[in-house]
Amino acid sequence: xxxxxxxxxxxxxxxxxxxxxxxxxxxxxxxxxxxxxxxxxxxxxxxxxxxxxxxxxxxxxxxxxxxxxxxxxxxxxxxxxxxxxxxxxxxxxxxxxxxxxxxxxxxxxxxxxxxxxxxxxxxxxxxxxxx
Length: 131
What we know:
11% of the residues lie in helices and 28% in strands.
């Protein structure tokens, strides 16, 4: 079980070229709060992948270098069912794709659910509740 209580800036990983990173998998719930404990709770069903940044996806995609990113005051929360890896055995052949166990098959419907709720104070019992 992973428990993180750090700011999105502490989760960000510096790469030469900006890209999504710091993704957490098998997340049942995530809360984004300020110093007073007031914020937003997302409860996921069954589990999700979660990222939180001070950048929009467009910011990340448009910047050619990390130092060109401008930190925004807002936190952008990304909730995904799953993410597929981007790397394979090499970068120049048919092996450039992720290995089969790390792919998400296309051509079939997928669904996931999450509930967003405002929170303040001790919300851990509420976070543990299922749908």
